[in-house]
Design brief:
Blueprint lengths: L8 H19 L3 H12 L1 H15 L5 H15 L2 H41 L10 H8 L4 H17 L8 H14 L7 H6 L8 H13 L16 H11 L10 H21 L1
Helix pairs in contact: 1-2, 1-3, 2-4, 3-11, 4-10, 5-8, 11-12
Length: 275
Amino acid sequence: MPTDQSDTPISMCEGILKRTHQYNSEHKIWPSENRVIEVMLGRQLELVDAYGDLHSSLSDIPRALELFFDRFLSIAILWRPEQTAKMRNERKRIDDLNMAISEMASEIAELMRKRDALHNESEFYSHTHYDICDVIEEAGEDNVLFGGWVKSELSALGRNFGLKYWPQLHEIMDVIAKDSREATAMPTDEITAAATAGSRASRSDFFRALFQTLEESQKYGPPSLPKGFRLKDETLASLANCALDMGPDDLFDAQYVKRFRQRERDRKRTSLVTT
Protein backbone atom coordinates (compact mmCIF):
# COMPACT_ATOMS: atom_id res chain seq x y z
CA MET A 1 0.00 0.00 0.00
CA PRO A 2 1.49 3.42 -0.88
CA THR A 3 2.54 5.58 2.07
CA ASP A 4 0.47 8.69 2.77
CA GLN A 5 2.87 11.59 2.29
CA SER A 6 0.54 14.23 3.73
CA ASP A 7 1.83 13.81 7.30
CA THR A 8 5.56 13.63 6.64
CA PRO A 9 7.69 16.32 8.32
CA ILE A 10 8.53 17.95 5.00
CA SER A 11 4.95 18.00 3.73
CA MET A 12 3.56 19.35 7.00
CA CYS A 13 6.17 22.09 7.40
CA GLU A 14 6.21 23.12 3.76
CA GLY A 15 2.43 22.96 3.68
CA ILE A 16 2.30 25.65 6.36
CA LEU A 17 4.83 27.77 4.47
CA LYS A 18 2.95 27.39 1.19
CA ARG A 19 -0.40 28.30 2.75
CA THR A 20 1.16 31.36 4.34
CA HIS A 21 2.68 32.35 1.01
CA GLN A 22 -0.66 31.90 -0.76
CA TYR A 23 -2.55 33.93 1.84
CA ASN A 24 -0.02 36.77 1.64
CA SER A 25 -0.16 36.74 -2.16
CA GLU A 26 -3.95 36.75 -2.31
CA HIS A 27 -4.17 39.64 0.16
CA LYS A 28 -1.16 41.46 -1.28
CA ILE A 29 0.61 41.65 2.07
CA TRP A 30 4.00 40.80 3.53
CA PRO A 31 6.08 40.46 0.36
CA SER A 32 9.20 40.28 2.53
CA GLU A 33 7.77 37.25 4.32
CA ASN A 34 7.03 35.59 1.00
CA ARG A 35 10.63 36.13 -0.11
CA VAL A 36 11.84 34.30 2.99
CA ILE A 37 9.39 31.46 2.35
CA GLU A 38 10.53 31.18 -1.26
CA VAL A 39 14.14 30.83 -0.17
CA MET A 40 13.22 28.18 2.39
CA LEU A 41 11.23 26.21 -0.16
CA GLY A 42 14.11 26.44 -2.61
CA ARG A 43 16.60 25.12 -0.05
CA GLN A 44 14.51 22.16 1.04
CA LEU A 45 17.41 19.70 1.23
CA GLU A 46 19.09 21.78 3.92
CA LEU A 47 15.93 21.68 6.04
CA VAL A 48 15.01 17.99 5.95
CA ASP A 49 16.47 17.23 9.39
CA ALA A 50 15.18 20.52 10.81
CA TYR A 51 11.65 19.71 9.68
CA GLY A 52 12.01 16.30 11.29
CA ASP A 53 13.00 17.90 14.59
CA LEU A 54 10.09 20.34 14.42
CA HIS A 55 7.66 17.58 13.49
CA SER A 56 8.68 15.32 16.37
CA SER A 57 8.46 18.21 18.86
CA LEU A 58 5.28 19.95 17.76
CA SER A 59 3.12 17.90 15.41
CA ASP A 60 1.00 16.42 18.21
CA ILE A 61 0.15 19.82 19.68
CA PRO A 62 -2.73 21.67 17.97
CA ARG A 63 -1.52 24.61 15.88
CA ALA A 64 1.95 24.54 17.46
CA LEU A 65 3.73 24.12 14.13
CA GLU A 66 1.75 27.01 12.63
CA LEU A 67 2.60 29.15 15.64
CA PHE A 68 6.29 28.31 15.37
CA PHE A 69 6.51 29.28 11.70
CA ASP A 70 4.49 32.42 12.29
CA ARG A 71 6.94 33.55 14.98
CA PHE A 72 9.99 32.34 13.11
CA LEU A 73 9.10 34.18 9.91
CA SER A 74 8.46 37.41 11.79
CA ILE A 75 11.92 37.22 13.34
CA ALA A 76 13.47 36.39 9.97
CA ILE A 77 11.96 39.59 8.57
CA LEU A 78 12.50 42.00 11.44
CA TRP A 79 15.81 40.81 12.81
CA ARG A 80 18.00 40.26 9.80
CA PRO A 81 21.60 41.45 10.37
CA GLU A 82 21.06 44.61 8.33
CA GLN A 83 17.95 45.40 10.37
CA THR A 84 19.68 45.12 13.72
CA ALA A 85 22.36 47.58 12.62
CA LYS A 86 19.61 49.99 11.53
CA MET A 87 17.79 49.64 14.85
CA ARG A 88 20.94 50.35 16.83
CA ASN A 89 21.53 53.45 14.71
CA GLU A 90 17.97 54.55 15.47
CA ARG A 91 18.57 54.10 19.20
CA LYS A 92 21.74 56.21 18.99
CA ARG A 93 19.89 58.81 16.96
CA ILE A 94 17.20 59.11 19.65
CA ASP A 95 19.85 59.58 22.34
CA ASP A 96 21.66 62.17 20.20
CA LEU A 97 18.42 64.05 19.55
CA ASN A 98 17.58 64.06 23.25
CA MET A 99 20.93 65.63 24.06
CA ALA A 100 20.48 68.21 21.30
CA ILE A 101 16.98 69.05 22.57
CA SER A 102 18.30 69.37 26.11
CA GLU A 103 21.04 71.75 25.06
CA MET A 104 18.73 73.86 22.90
CA ALA A 105 15.98 73.97 25.52
CA SER A 106 18.49 75.14 28.14
CA GLU A 107 19.71 77.81 25.75
CA ILE A 108 16.15 78.94 24.98
CA ALA A 109 15.34 79.08 28.72
CA GLU A 110 18.33 81.34 29.29
CA LEU A 111 17.41 83.57 26.36
CA MET A 112 13.88 83.89 27.74
CA ARG A 113 15.26 84.97 31.12
CA LYS A 114 17.36 87.64 29.46
CA ARG A 115 14.39 88.85 27.42
CA ASP A 116 12.21 89.05 30.54
CA ALA A 117 14.90 91.06 32.27
CA LEU A 118 15.08 93.54 29.39
CA HIS A 119 11.30 93.82 29.29
CA ASN A 120 11.39 94.79 32.98
CA GLU A 121 14.47 97.03 32.90
CA SER A 122 14.42 98.80 29.53
CA GLU A 123 12.00 101.20 27.90
CA PHE A 124 11.00 98.63 25.31
CA TYR A 125 8.72 95.65 25.23
CA SER A 126 7.96 92.93 22.66
CA HIS A 127 4.47 91.54 22.60
CA THR A 128 5.48 87.92 23.00
CA HIS A 129 3.71 85.28 25.02
CA TYR A 130 4.27 85.22 28.76
CA ASP A 131 1.15 83.34 29.88
CA ILE A 132 1.33 79.55 29.56
CA CYS A 133 -2.45 79.38 29.04
CA ASP A 134 -2.18 81.63 25.98
CA VAL A 135 0.59 79.44 24.58
CA ILE A 136 -1.47 76.28 25.04
CA GLU A 137 -4.56 77.85 23.48
CA GLU A 138 -2.67 79.03 20.41
CA ALA A 139 -0.90 75.69 20.03
CA GLY A 140 -4.25 73.90 20.19
CA GLU A 141 -5.98 76.00 17.54
CA ASP A 142 -5.98 73.21 14.96
CA ASN A 143 -6.97 70.50 17.44
CA VAL A 144 -10.74 70.04 17.19
CA LEU A 145 -10.93 68.05 20.41
CA PHE A 146 -8.98 70.70 22.29
CA GLY A 147 -11.29 73.41 20.97
CA GLY A 148 -14.43 71.45 21.76
CA TRP A 149 -13.56 70.09 25.19
CA VAL A 150 -10.55 71.73 26.79
CA LYS A 151 -10.24 75.32 25.63
CA SER A 152 -13.15 76.75 27.60
CA GLU A 153 -12.06 74.94 30.77
CA LEU A 154 -8.51 76.20 30.36
CA SER A 155 -9.71 79.76 29.71
CA ALA A 156 -11.75 79.64 32.93
CA LEU A 157 -8.72 78.45 34.87
CA GLY A 158 -6.64 81.25 33.37
CA ARG A 159 -9.20 83.84 34.42
CA ASN A 160 -9.57 82.44 37.95
CA PHE A 161 -5.87 82.03 38.65
CA GLY A 162 -3.39 84.77 37.81
CA LEU A 163 0.15 84.41 36.49
CA LYS A 164 1.64 83.75 39.93
CA TYR A 165 -0.12 80.38 39.98
CA TRP A 166 1.42 79.17 36.73
CA PRO A 167 4.97 78.22 35.75
CA GLN A 168 6.82 80.77 33.65
CA LEU A 169 7.78 79.88 30.11
CA HIS A 170 11.49 79.65 30.87
CA GLU A 171 10.73 77.25 33.71
CA ILE A 172 8.87 75.01 31.29
CA MET A 173 11.87 75.02 28.97
CA ASP A 174 14.06 74.07 31.95
CA VAL A 175 11.86 71.04 32.53
CA ILE A 176 12.03 70.05 28.85
CA ALA A 177 15.81 70.35 28.98
CA LYS A 178 16.05 68.22 32.12
CA ASP A 179 13.62 65.62 30.79
CA SER A 180 15.55 65.17 27.55
CA ARG A 181 18.93 65.22 29.30
CA GLU A 182 17.96 62.37 31.61
CA ALA A 183 16.17 60.30 28.97
CA THR A 184 17.62 57.12 27.46
CA ALA A 185 16.24 55.27 24.46
CA MET A 186 14.61 52.08 25.70
CA PRO A 187 13.33 49.05 23.77
CA THR A 188 9.58 48.88 23.30
CA ASP A 189 9.33 45.14 23.99
CA GLU A 190 11.24 42.18 25.39
CA ILE A 191 12.25 40.88 21.96
CA THR A 192 13.90 44.16 21.03
CA ALA A 193 15.57 44.27 24.43
CA ALA A 194 16.97 40.77 24.00
CA ALA A 195 18.08 41.25 20.40
CA THR A 196 19.93 44.50 21.13
CA ALA A 197 21.51 43.36 24.39
CA GLY A 198 24.91 43.09 22.72
CA SER A 199 27.14 46.15 22.55
CA ARG A 200 27.23 46.06 18.77
CA ALA A 201 25.20 44.61 15.93
CA SER A 202 26.05 41.02 15.09
CA ARG A 203 24.54 37.86 13.66
CA SER A 204 23.80 36.78 17.22
CA ASP A 205 21.02 39.38 17.38
CA PHE A 206 18.85 37.13 15.22
CA PHE A 207 19.17 34.23 17.64
CA ARG A 208 18.55 36.42 20.68
CA ALA A 209 15.33 37.66 19.10
CA LEU A 210 14.33 34.14 18.11
CA PHE A 211 14.95 32.61 21.54
CA GLN A 212 13.06 35.42 23.26
CA THR A 213 10.14 34.95 20.88
CA LEU A 214 10.05 31.20 21.43
CA GLU A 215 10.20 31.73 25.18
CA GLU A 216 7.28 34.14 25.08
CA SER A 217 5.34 31.75 22.83
CA GLN A 218 5.40 29.21 25.66
CA LYS A 219 3.70 31.59 28.11
CA TYR A 220 0.58 32.64 26.27
CA GLY A 221 -2.09 30.89 24.26
CA PRO A 222 -3.65 28.86 22.98
CA PRO A 223 -2.02 28.22 20.66
CA SER A 224 1.29 28.02 22.46
CA LEU A 225 4.53 26.12 22.30
CA PRO A 226 5.08 23.42 24.94
CA LYS A 227 6.89 24.36 28.13
CA GLY A 228 10.59 23.70 27.84
CA PHE A 229 10.42 23.60 24.04
CA ARG A 230 13.94 23.33 22.67
CA LEU A 231 15.20 22.64 19.17
CA LYS A 232 18.50 21.00 18.33
CA ASP A 233 21.46 23.25 17.58
CA GLU A 234 21.60 21.78 14.08
CA THR A 235 17.94 22.64 13.52
CA LEU A 236 18.38 26.27 14.53
CA ALA A 237 21.47 26.63 12.37
CA SER A 238 19.72 25.21 9.31
CA LEU A 239 16.61 27.32 9.78
CA ALA A 240 18.68 30.48 10.18
CA ASN A 241 20.84 29.69 7.16
CA CYS A 242 17.82 29.34 4.91
CA ALA A 243 15.63 32.08 6.35
CA LEU A 244 18.49 34.59 6.16
CA ASP A 245 19.65 33.16 2.81
CA MET A 246 23.22 32.76 4.06
CA GLY A 247 25.86 31.98 1.46
CA PRO A 248 28.28 29.03 1.67
CA ASP A 249 30.99 31.15 3.31
CA ASP A 250 28.70 32.53 6.02
CA LEU A 251 26.74 29.49 7.15
CA PHE A 252 25.85 28.91 10.78
CA ASP A 253 26.60 25.48 12.16
CA ALA A 254 25.63 23.57 15.28
CA GLN A 255 28.81 24.63 17.08
CA TYR A 256 27.98 28.29 16.53
CA VAL A 257 24.54 27.84 18.08
CA LYS A 258 25.97 25.80 20.96
CA ARG A 259 28.55 28.50 21.75
CA PHE A 260 25.86 31.14 21.47
CA ARG A 261 23.64 29.34 23.98
CA GLN A 262 26.55 29.14 26.42
CA ARG A 263 27.40 32.83 26.02
CA GLU A 264 23.79 33.77 26.67
CA ARG A 265 23.66 31.63 29.81
CA ASP A 266 26.86 33.28 31.05
CA ARG A 267 25.57 36.75 30.20
CA LYS A 268 22.30 36.20 32.04
CA ARG A 269 24.08 34.82 35.09
CA THR A 270 26.37 37.84 35.15
CA SER A 271 23.38 40.16 34.77
CA LEU A 272 21.63 38.53 37.73
CA VAL A 273 24.72 38.89 39.90
CA THR A 274 25.24 42.56 39.04
CA THR A 275 21.58 43.43 39.63
